[in-house]
Known about the structure:
- There is one protein chain.
- This protein has four helices and two strands, in the order αααββα.
- The protein is mainly alpha-helical.
- The chain has one domain (5-134): Bromodomain-like.
- It is elongated and about 50 Å long.
Amino acid sequence: MSRPAGETALVLAWIIALFSSLAVLYIGEVLGQTPCVLCWFQRAFMFPLAIILGLGLWWQDRRVARYGIALALGGGAVALYHLGLYIGLIPEPIQPCTATGPSCTDDNQLVFGIPIPLMALAAFALIAVLSALSLKEPRT
């Protein structure tokens, strides 16, 4: 028996959230890279996504996607701001990462040559789109 398209979309959103959560834990705990201020905020949105979407799948409640959309949009906004800092679109006086702690814009923000904020933005965008697709009711 095949899965409904909405459930498949929700499973994919959960896989992305889980993989992203495990990836940042690997970067921080195994590779020893201390997260910047904005990375912490992005983690605050991503970690609950893995748990909430997983529980929604476990309980077979596709409506949990509404919370997935809200968390993904919030995390995506932080990631977009972080990416703006990284590529230099946001002026230095309003950057939150210059006083203390790791920089939000140095080479430490690259993994496999890709900026971490860009990867986070892509993950949040995919989770939001897949969560929204999971809410679509099939037409009968």
